Amino acid sequence: MEAVTRFDPLPAEDCLIDSHCHLDAPELAADVDGVAARARAAGVGQLLVPAVTAGAFADVLAMRERYGCWIALGLHPIYLDRHLDDHLGLLDAALAAHAPAAVGEIGLDFYLPELDPARQEALLAEQLKLARKHGLPAVLHVRRSVDRVLKHLREQKVECGIAHAFNGSEQQAQAFIRQGFKLGFGGAMTYSGSRRIRALAASLPLSSLVLETDAPDIRPEYARDMPNEPFQLARFVELLAELRGMEVAPLRRALRDNTLAALALS
């Protein structure tokens, strides 16, 4: 029997970190061991696996047990119809019992019209209170909702975490940075038409950036017919180095340090 690939508790300076990877997703279920092995072979030393529902907590914890990955626990806004009244209590207990790296994936999604904005905001506010209660960073979903998410961060005084798949303006990016958050960039950078994202990746302070895949989602332009995987970070970091006009090695070190800082691990 082949040994199971394990990630590093604290990745080395030259390792890549996937700051957002749904390793428990059904699209990856048939070959999760292979996904982990390909990631390590590509130089990925660690990844963060966020939960999206209370029902997924056990699966995410199992991923940590098997692969040694970091995890986050939270209630994702897209799955609003699955979140019951007692799930905030379950999340509170799980945060206390299992010491995740962050509360997540949480946030707001104003792209899908069927999701009740008021209920989303109430859920986000309560989860940010839990992040503050447990002293944990927040991993945020901010689709078409950046300003409202920022409002809740200020109100709840949450000042550490990651704005995942950032796609806002430079002004909004600076607001997140002032709030103490890092900004996640990944597969969207690979699309030649993503001019604003590429411009932000090139011009924002290096200290504000982290890399992510959102695997199996946000597939890169060159691999749109297959689920995204964390091994793609090796190409993402090369693209980011090209956009910023810098060498890959110091960029890898900076991104690693940024991710540790975003998760209060350094």
Automatic annotation (TrEMBL):
Entry-linked CDD domains: TatD_DNAse
Name assigned to this protein: DNAase
Hydrolase among keywords: yes
Protein family membership: Belongs to the metallo-dependent hydrolases superfamily. TatD-type hydrolase family.
Positions annotated to bind a divalent metal cation 2: 141, 164
Pfam family, one: TatD_DNase
Organism for this UniProt entry: Chromobacterium phragmitis
Keywords, ordered alphabetically: Hydrolase, Metal-binding
Positions bound to a divalent metal cation 1: 20, 22, 105, 214
Entry's Gene Ontology molecular function annotations: hydrolase activity, acting on ester bonds; metal ion binding
PANTHER family for the chain: D-AMINOACYL-TRNA DEACYLASE
